[in-house]
Each structure stands twice: as structure tokens, then as C-alpha cells.
Amino acid sequence: MVDKVWSDHAATQLEATVQFRKLLSDGKNSTMIKIIRADVLPRFAEFLSRQRPPQLQMEAAWVLTNIAASDYTLLVAECGAVPRLVELLESPDANIRHQATWALGNIAADMPSCREIVLDHGAVTPLLAQFKEDMKVSVLRTATWALSNLCFGKLPAEVQVKPILEIVSLLIHSADEKILADACWALYYICDGVEGGIQDALDAGVCPQLVKLLMHASANILLPVIMSLARISAGDDTQVQVIVEQGILPCLAQLLARNYPKIIKKQACLIVSNITAGSKDQIQTSETDLKKEAAWAISNAASGGSSDQIQYLVSRGCLEPLCNVLKYQDVDLVYTCLEGLQNILEEGDIGKQRNESAMNPYAQFILENGGLDNLEDLQDFDNDAVYKLAMKLLERYWDEEVSDDANLTASKDHPAENVETVQPEDTAQPPVAASSVDGTE
């Protein structure tokens, strides 16, 4: 077969190339090694420029695609195939264009050096041109996947991001989950790895659809979506304002109440934290509405969070705003907040036992920052479920403090004859509520 590949007869070259392609279909690494050692890759790269017979380009691209999907991708990238594959993206034959796209996608997916070779040969522009045709779904999947691979990492300065985002902003409306997922990953890569990428994405108008996709049922879609939104939430106040106005917080509140993988919920918590830490002068939505939506999101995260999520939330300073939520008159919100505090306090008990500590660190924090006052006020809350859960927490974690307050109240209502007068300076002072980081209650 090797001799036939190096033949001067086109028909013999095609026959040998087809035989090599069929050999590769067995998927065996030993077969791949034999072909590599035969040193025929430069010959297949040469065939990519041959227009006669027409099938030779297709078969050669097919062989190189399969090899590029193996552990020997770099050899394909360096054998002279890439510039010819880029040229084939403009072939009049749709099947050849598809095969060239597939091969370039495999090369770009391997390692940064391979991706850089593809980018250096100007693959982006002709690849984007593929999306302007009436494509079959299978071809569109391959093209979107290849584009996503090219966007991974740091794009060179000479690569124009806006034309990519014009295509991606359309692809994120696709009903095909494979296309949708790869388009969302491409968007995340741009937001994460391109200077000014966040603003470019906002200018492309992707935010409304991204926020809608937070309600998508598939975790495969949610992950790149929420990672993209997390990057945007780490932008400046004006950029954060865009996603707030699209109603991201209510969506996050619902998402956090559902059973999704840990990484998705962690990203959701990060977004909430970034938004609530933003400048209130810049976030122009109703402050009350913003607080309430953020409170729902944090409460849901805490009430349904895993051990790692709870520790992450506490490390991001969620305890104080949770305690402040207890002042709201929304029954469902307050009850969810109590469930969140219960979950956090139970995690504190585990930490207490692990560290052989005398006190629950989270209970102590709540006590020192005025949260106990808010919990005690719930004894007068006009809802039985809220009252019972509040009492359960008070009795379990602050029984001594609650008993002291009760005794003090009883002594005022029914003073005994021989009770010694307590001087004002000796009276136990209730903890004073500390202001939150952003200066709100």
C-alpha cells in the first residue's frame, strides 16, 4: 500500500488512500502506529491539493481526520495538511468542506500549539462562511464544534471576535442540544479568554437568551451558560447591570432550588455574590426587589446545598445577609431562609466535632452579629411553620441565651420580694446588629 501511495498514477493513489482509510476504521492503536511509521502523512497532505480524481481530496482528508483524532494529532498539524485543509473550506463540494471542517476541529481540539497552527493559517474566516449556507444539522454540528475548539484558550489579537459572536448569538437559539452546548462553550471561551470579550458578548446581544437558558433542563447546556454568566457577573457594574435587568436573580433562585450538579450551583452562588457585592449606585433596579431576589437565591442555595456548597457560601459572607432576610414579611422566603440557616448550622456542628471545638462557629457568628435578635423576633411571626422552625433553632443552638432572656423577662413581670436590684451597667446587653458589607440591612 505504501508503494501505491507514492505511485504517479492517480487511480492507484486513490485506491491506496481508500485502503488506508479502511485500515484506520478498526480503531486499533497498533494500526495507527504502523501508518505513522510508514511516513505517508506528507503524501496525504499533498493529495488535499489534487483535484483529480475528485474523490482523492475527500479520502485524504478522511484519513487525516482519523489520525488527528488519535494521540498523533501534532504530526498531522505539522505535516503540511493545515493550510490545504483551510483551502478546502472553500471547496465547491459540500462533503469535502464538511470533512475539512472535521479535520481542523480535531487538530484544534488537541493542544494549544495545534490550535495556534490552525488559527495562524486563517481558518476562522472561511469556517464562519460555512454558517451562511443552508446546512444540514450534522454539518452544522461539526462546524459549531470546530468553532468552539478554535475559541478555546486565548485567541490571538488578530482574530476578529465580533464576526464570531454574530454567528454564536444565532447558534445559542438552536433547538439542537449539541449545537447549543458547543455554541455556549464558544461564548464562554470568548468571555473568559479575550480582552474585552465580556463587552463584545454584551454588544452582540447574547444576554437575554443566556438568562432564558438558565431554565434549560439539561446540565450539559446549563454548565457553559452559567459559566458565561459568571464571567459577565465578574465584569464592571455596567456589565453586571445588564444581566440584572434581564431577570437573572429569579432564575438563579429557581435553579438553586433544583437538583443540579455541584459545579452548576457553585457558579450560581458566585453570580449572586458578585451581583450583591456590586455598587448599588450602578445597579439601577429597585433596591428592594434586588435584595429580595438575591435573598431567594442565597436562601435556596443554603437550604439545598451540599457540604462544599455550604462552606463556599459561608466563605463568601452569606450568613449576615441571611440573618437580615429574617426581617422580611414574606412567609415562603423567611421559611426557606430558616431552612438555609438550619443547613449551615448543622454543617457547623460537623465542623465543631471535627475540630473538637466547644462551640458551633456559625452559631457564634450569628449570635455576635445580631442574628439571634431576628430569630427571637420570629416568635411573634404570624405563621406556625416559621414559628416552629425558629423555635427549633433557638432551642438547639442558643438554648442558654434564650433561657437567660426568658428569665430576665420573667423577673420584670413577676418580681420576687428579695431580688437584688441589678445595676444598669451590669445588665447583659443584647448583641448589636452589624451593618452588611455594602452598608445595607
Low confidence ranges = 279-286, 406-441
Give me the CATH fold name of one domain.
Leucine-rich Repeat Variant
Structural class by SSE content = mainly alpha
What percent of the residues sit in helical stretches (DSSP H or I)?
55-70%
User: Strand percentage, roughly?
Assistant: under 5%
Radius of gyration: 31 Å
SSE string, helices as H and strands as E: HHHHHHHHHHHHHHHHHHHHHHHHHHH
**What global shape is seen?**
elongated
Protein name: Importin subunit alpha
Subunit structure: Forms a complex with importin subunit beta-1.
Function: Binds specifically and directly to substrates containing either a simple or bipartite NLS motif. Promotes docking of import substrates to the nuclear envelope.
InterPro entries: ARM-like, ARM-type_fold, Arm_3, Armadillo, Importin_alpha
Task: Please describe the topology of this protein.
Blueprint: H1 2-5, H2 10-24, H3 29-37, H4 41-47, H5 54-68, H6 73-77, H7 81-88, H8 94-110, H9 112-120, H10 124-130, H11 137-151, H12 161-171, H13 177-193, H14 197-203, H15 207-213, H16 219-233, H17 237-245, H18 248-256, H19 262-276, H20 287-304, H21 307-315, H22 319-325, H23 331-354, H24 361-368, H25 371-377, H26 384-397, H27 399-413
Helix pairs in contact: 2-5, 4-5, 4-7, 5-8, 7-8, 8-9, 8-11, 10-11, 11-13, 12-13, 13-14, 13-16, 15-16, 16-19, 18-19, 18-20, 19-20, 19-21, 20-23, 22-23, 23-26
